[in-house]
Amino acid sequence: MVTTEQSYRHFITTKTNCQEEEETTLTEKQLEIFRENIDHLMVAEKISQRKLAADIGISRTSLSRILCGERRITVEALQAISKRFGRKMDDLINKRLFEN
Description:
Blueprint: H1 4-7, E1 10-15, E2 21-26, H2 28-45, H3 49-56, H4 60-67, E3 73-74, H5 75-85, H6 89-94
Parallel strand pairs: 1-3
Antiparallel strand pairs: 1-2
Helix pairs in contact: 3-4
């Protein structure tokens, strides 16, 4: 049986020099903050998931699955998103950039 804690594990993956995947766990809270920040940034800049996905070089479906927690986000995608919005990666996952 999967516990609640296990069901909320999300990962950032990247390839090391040895071409092995390295995973870093995002907590449930970090994932929630990340999604809220991206949603707010997209609304503020009036861009769609399709436009953001094209800007960072992934499909709209992949972006949608990342934002709803169904797919792992790569470090490269996180870097591209932070660059696209001019924000630090750490801020995107650890700070609420907007007040609700």
